[in-house]
Design a protein that fits this description.
Blueprint lengths: L3 H6 L9 H7 L3 E6 L4 E3 L7 E7 L1 E7 L6 E8 L3 E2 L3 H4 L6 E4 L3 E7 L11 H66 L3 H25 L14 H29 L20 H37 L5 H15 L6 H21 L2 H19 L2 H4 L2
Antiparallel strand pairs: 1-8, 2-7, 3-6, 3-8, 4-5, 4-7
């Protein structure tokens, strides 16, 4: 490591100074080492030195009006300097500078007003260099400020757009809930309810898709992309397999522990392979299974693609993804109340799981694939609709 005064000679603050002029300044220089988190200077302090970073990195921060913590403004590294504005106005420090890592500094004492050195040509040249360096920083700061304002404006536009989309979707979901509830109340038949539910879901999905197409955002924002779809389908299968095992274990526990379910078989395959139902029953079961498989992608389009995506874009903060999953799934669960409260409550954890898959993949492929697997397993293999809808 070279001598600190010789290193200063090569710094931009001393550019243009001859050896004699630099000697006239009689700079008081010393080396200083600071550890991560240590404050080199604090906002509001009286200045007595400026600093050149030999090695390491520091952060410049300014205290907020309503908080005790500093707001980061910039980071400086080897070769940068800070505190040199005190050479011009000797005002209190305007920011706090803390080390981000072990940092070696060259501390240069500042001549006070009235000191004969401040009248020397070398000092005036140094002030000129400080002014040029400050001007360059201001230009950079202006560029950063403009970029920050543009990001904030784009974020505000996104939140407004997604807010409108979210309100529209919630209104549609509310209408959907009323329609299917009235349909369920009009008939106790699962087939009759399905006949009403399927077109209503398709209509809801069509309205949401229309809003997506009208928005200024690509369809991938709403999970409508087939990018890496095979990988996402495989992932969803691997993540869903333990869920299917857990559901099977849960039914087994109910059969073993609850007397009312003692006579219920663990596996209760649908009429598709049950010879006792006859050809008509088999066709009916097959049709219901097909209808379910067709409807699920549209349910996911609304629950995950529309609700969760718009909430994710609208909300801010480190927990925005969590709240987006929770809120969208709450509305998704409420849409199942027309079947039964028990069914809706059991659908809630499943919806959280599919919301998690969607948040991980940001495509509807995995969540839809998992939704279909779980639904077919529950209704076509475990045959739980008999006591869930009771």
């Amino acid at each position: 490591m070279g001598h600190p005064k010789r290193e200063l000679r090569r710094h931009r603050l001393f550019a243009g100074l001859s050896d004699d002029e630099l000697g006239e300044l009689q700079l008081e220089v010393q080396e200083r080492r600071v550890e991560p988190g240590d404050a080199v200077v604090r906002e509001g302090e009286s200045p007595d030195a400026f600093y050149v970073i030999r090695k390491g990195r520091v952060e410049v921060g300014k205290a907020g009006e309503l908080q005790d913590q500093d707001h980061a403004l910039a980071q400086l590294a080897s070769g940068d300097s800070f505190g040199e504005l005190a050479l011009i106005d000797h005002s209190p420090r305007s920011a706090t500078v803390r080390a981000l890592e072990p940092t070696d500094l060259v501390e240069v004492a500042i001549p006070q007003p009235g000191d004969p050195r401040t009248e020397s040509l070398g000092y005036l040249k140094m002030l000129r260099n400080v002014a040029e360096a400050t001007a360059a920083r201001l230009r950079g700061t202006n560029n950063v400020t403009v970029a920050t304002l543009e990001r904030e404006l784009n974020l505000a536009r996104t939140r407004v757009s997604m807010g409108e989309f979210l309100v529209f979707t919630i209104l549609l979901m509310s209408a959907y809930g009323f329609v299917v509830r009235m349909a369920a109340g009009a008939s106790e038949s699962t087939v009759s309810t399905t006949v009403i539910t399927v077109p209503v879901v398709l209509g809801l999905a069509a309205a949401v898709t229309w809003m997506m197409l009208r928005s200024d955002y690509p369809l991938a924002t709403y999970g409508l992309t087939l990018d890496r779809w095979k990988e996402h389908a495989v992932q969803a299968t691997l993540w869903t397999a333990p869920v299917l095992v857990a559901l099977t274990a849960l039914k087994w526990a109910l059969i073993s522990l609850v007397p009312a379910y003692a006579s219920v078989p663990l596996f209760d395959f649908t009429a598709v392979i049950n010879p006792e139902t006859g050809r008509g029953g088999a066709m009916l079961a097959l049709g219901l299974g097909l209808a379910y498989t067709v409807v699920v992608p549209f349910q996911e389009l609304v629950a995950r693609g529309a609700l969760q995506s718009s909430l994710h874009e609208f909300l801010v903060g480190p927990r925005s993804t969590f709240w987006a999953i929770l809120a969208s799934n709450a509305m998704f669960t409420a849409s199942h109340l027309y079947l039964s409260v028990t069914f809706a409550l059991l659908a809630f954890p499943a919806g959280l799981f599919w919301g998690w898959i969607y948040a991980r993949q940001r495509t509807l492929v995995g969540a839809t694939f998992s939704h279909i697997l779980v639904g077919l397993w529950v209704f076509s293999v475990l045959g739980v609709e008999g006591f869930l809808l009771a």
